[in-house]
Amino acid sequence: MTVHLRIWRQAGPDSPGRLAEYTVEDVNEHMSFLELLDVLNEKLITEGEEPIEFDNDCREGICGSCGLMVGGVAHGPQPRTAICQLHMRHFNDGDTIVVEPWRATAFPIIKDLVVDRSAFDRIMAAGGYVSVKTGGAPDANALPVTKEDADLAMDYASCIGCGACVAACPNSSASLFTASKIAHLAMLPQGTPERRRRVLNMVDQMEAEGFGDCSNHAECEAVCPKGISISAIALMRREYVRAVLSS
Amino acid sequence: MEIAEPHVTERPERSRLKARVPAGRLQDKWDVYKNNAKLVNPANKRKHTIIIVGTGLAGASAAATLGGLGYNIKSLCIQDSARRAHSIAAQGGINAAKNYPNDGDTIWRLFYDTIKGGDYRSREGNVYRLAQISNNIIDQAVAQGVPFAREYGGLLDNRSFGGAQVSRTFYARGQTGQQLLLGAYQAMSHQIQEGRVEMLPRREMLELVVIDGRARGIVTRNLVTGELERHVGDAVLLCTGGYGNAYYLSTNAQNSNVTAAWRCHKRGAFFANPCFTQIHPTCIPVSGDYQSKLTLMSESLRNDGRVWVPKDTNDARPPSQIPEGERDYYLERRYPSFGNLVPRDVASRAAKAVTDEGLGVGETNLAVYLDFRDAIERLGRQAIEDRYGNLFEMYERITGDTPYEVPMRIFPAVHYTMGGLWVDYELMTTVPGLFVLGEANFSDHGANRLGASALMQGLADGYFVIPYTLGGYIAGAELGDVTIGHSTFADTERAAGERLRRLLDVKGGKTVAEFHRELGQIMWDHVGMSRNRDGLLQAAEAIRRLRDEYWQNVNVAGRNDTLNKNLEFAGRVGDFLELGEMMALDALHREESCGGHFREEHKTAEGEALRDDDDFAYVAAWEHTGDHARPQLHREDLEFEYVRPSTRSYK
Fold first, then answer.
1. B279 φ, ψ to 5°?
2. Domain that holds residue A21
3. Quick one: pLDDT band at residue B16, thresholds 50, 70, 90?
């Protein structure tokens, strides 16, 4: 099949950007969307043009490197699917597809479709961990955890840090990202001693990075490639209120 | 490298290679080492800067631990965040000898399975230490909040993996690597917050800086600005993963590469057993030329899935219409005691054997079935969904088929490299001050890695081995004052810059990816699951030609002073083109079959691998002797005091 692409090109953080138009023919329906961009890039390189830059790495939906707005939707039209796992069988011959980077004040554009998501790392550094040094940990079975809690913790912990939640949010809020880590650790006894400090510091950092507040649009949940529920955000708020009231 | 007629008969020098495994009983060696290791005074640790390249399980756990001990850590990675290193993609699990299921596991048994699984091509001392440490890793991860799977009673659950007859694998759904990596990343983030670790993402190591015979720094390229940067330290820890992308198509991430390790090799670090490559039996088959990577389906699926092909080569019926009597469950038939859970190398070769006979399935005939029909009948769909739901979903996303109704089609793909930079018991290379951790070293898996052992090794090296061995080096070495103004830094940086300019200046007619694909095809055809002398000679020659063409005809797009992924890849493919030849050479010199290295000339009457312990029970470590010279082979003889190498049988 043939697809028409309108792709955001921007030479650098301070350069103006624009949507450039490309057509790719002989697209195989088994190709992934990123493989489509590979094919286009090979053509551009051969024609002496600069290829389109986009972050990607594992191409199996777990590293969180890739992230594109495809047709105005973060990670494209398939639910619970990172863009690297979206295959062309979900498009039709003759489609025009608009491809843009994540857009948020806290994610400045580096080049073309590549953005700077280092704000996420700083939110994690503010408290997204259990402070244990290496060695001296008690036996792994010393603290039982109910299967239900462990499963729920795993649901929250499956966040891949891609940033789709921010890109989809009308407020550019990082609440789902931040809350998923807070919720993961709040579900487990190991996370309990630091739960108050954790939520206060991570929420402060989230605000300092320039992310907006959550106003319950739930767009984040809809685009999350791991299907993380916004119940995480409710849990984060409870943690936050409890921490504020008790300090 | 010019290797007109490879030195198959040449007796390698029995050489400088000292593994430095401590004396004493196997069970005591690590304790003996720790009891005698020199220590660095706590107040002095912060005066020592340690450079850690890579933030996968090995790198992140090392940075977290050494930062926690008080060293001054500089950590670098090529991704935009440390959390994205490719360890994150490991699915199935991590082994430990906890014996929680009370099914007969012990540290000895984990050691024995691992050394047997590696086909007796690894060091007893290293592997025993790994088995001992395995239990600490699980404790550490649980304390960090890693959400391992649990039973209803609240305790940890285990499952079985290939090559073992006990359940010793801990797991977090099909995302064990992700959860363990995030645990290590979070521990490292804590140290970043404490000011003990400086994290520099989007940096690629292009050179190692060796001053007065010691590793004292690295040169990196800032992948956003293109600037070359100098980093000085008292030791360099390379945690940069494996080189499976030499085959172009592999289960590795797009950015996985050999460049950092290869640059160290060219500065004096020996490269050990480069031909030991793991081809994983359960991956989604190739669908077309545009294919950029292969996706692994966790080995854990073989717990409940049954592997089969039709008995008749011309059977074009859909799998559901092929009656039981006309199916060949070839793993169960050939290996009745291990069945579908034979080790990876055995399962991969068996798949190749049936497809070579024309019994393959799917559009390309390069696939076999992995069927869950019986397990679903026995346990119910829900139980299978609980165990493998996310893997089934991933399969469906890629192929459009649902494994609940149609058997999966799978085929082997390059997955892991057991070879890597040679290290001694302290994880130090032949360049003093250069340590290598995780998949990037060669140390613990011999000629074949068992499932759920890579996570174990990466974390063992980073959390529990390097803190002791690095201290010994720092306390004992006389490290002069060196700054980034040293002339060697300037020279090394210049060499790195010139190579980048050379790549951009060729402006030839073929893209980097075209060269990479061609290299991959040569490697897969001749240095893949099955190898022979003629094929390997042909491969070495073809790679040499391709490499010459590369430097005259590659077309690298864009500029040096900006984000330029094509330039990054160009540098990496240049290095793969050198490594690939050495892999062929190593495979050629090893006139035996062992683990993942299968030489057609050396097999039993039943077609199984035939080892030659008299002549090849050694580690082959290659020394770089110049760009146009043969690498020199050194050997480290493997001595087995506690296990007797036997023919590996899974029948």
1. -105, 115
2. 3-100
3. low
Contact pairs from chain A to chain B, CB under 8 Å = 221
- Contact between A64 and B84 using a beta-carbon 8 Å cutoff: yes
Q: Indicate the helix (H) or strand (E) that contains B178.
A: helix B176-193
Our count of domains for chain B comes to: 1
- Which of residues 172 through 201 in chain A touch B, CB cutoff 8 A? 184-185, 187-188, 190-191
* Minimal C-alpha gap between B168 and chain A (Å): 14
DSSP B261-309: HHHHHHTT--EE-TT-EEEEEEEPPP--TT-----B--GGGGGT-EEEE
Statement to judge: residues A159 and A51 lie in one domain = no
CA separation for the pair A97, A102 (Å, rounded):
16
Residue A159 confidence (pLDDT) = 98
In angstroms, the separation between the Cα of residue A159 and the nearest Cα of chain B is: 10
Q: Which two tokens stand for residue B356?
A: 């070579």
d(CA B413, nearest CA chain A) in Å: 15
What's the pLDDT tens digit per position in A166-177?
A: 999 999 999 999
> What average pLDDT does this structure show over B10-21?
71
Instruction: Kindly report, residue by residue over B170-180, the tens digit of the pLDDT.
Output: 999 889 999 99
- What is the pLDDT, as a whole number, of residue B14? 54
The verdict on A127 and A241 lying in the same domain is yes
pLDDT band at B389 (very low <50, low <70, confident <90, very high): confident
**Within a domain: B580:** no
Burial of B479 (0-12, 13-18, 19+ CB in 10 A): middle
Is residue A106 assigned to a domain?
no
Could B144 and A130 be called an inter-chain contact, meaning their C-beta atoms sit closer than 8 Å? yes
pLDDT score of B161: 82
* Model confidence at B397: pLDDT above 70: yes
Across B536-540, B574-578, B602-606, least confident range: B602-606
Q: Which residue in the block uniquely carries the two structure tokens 């683990």? A: B595
Number of domains in chain A: 2
d(CA A187, CA A231): 13
* Residue position matching structure tokens 């890695």: B449
User: Quick check: A108 contacting B, CB < 8 Å?
Assistant: no
Q: Is A234 on the interface with B (CB under 8 A)?
A: no
Name residue B74's beta-bridge partners.
B51, B198
* Whether residues A129 and A94 fall in one domain: no
Look at residue B208 and tell me if it is in a domain: no
Asked if A32 is an interface residue toward chain B (Cβ–Cβ < 8 A), one would say yes
A156 and A225 together in one domain: yes
Q: Is the same domain home to A130 and A194?
A: yes
Q: Which of the listed residues A68, A100, A132 is the one where a domain comes to its end?
A: A100
Residues A183 and A66 in one domain: no
pLDDT tens digits for range B468-499: 999 999 999 999 999 999 999 999 999 999 99
Give the end of a domain, one of A100, A130, A145: A100
What's the rounded Cα separation, in Å, for the pair B158 and B135? 13
Whether residues A53 and A137 share a domain: the answer is no
The H helix count followed by the E strand count for chain B is 18, 23
DSSP for B81-100, written as a single string: SGGGSGGGG--S-EE----T
Yes or no, beta carbons of B557 and A50 under 8 Å apart: yes
Q: What is the pLDDT of residues B138-165, one digit of tens each?
A: 999 999 999 999 999 999 999 888 778 8
Which domain does B369 fall in, by range?
280-414
Sheet with B49-53: strands ordered across: B197-200, B72-76, B49-53, B235-238, B434-436
Nearest partner of B243 among B611, B616, B519, B566, judged by Cα: B519
Contact B65 A60 (CB under 8 A): no
What CATH number is associated with residue A88? 3.10.20.30
**ipTM of the complex model:** 0.98
Q: What is the mean pLDDT of residues A202-231?
A: 98
For B198, name the nearest residue in chain A, comparing CA atoms only. A125
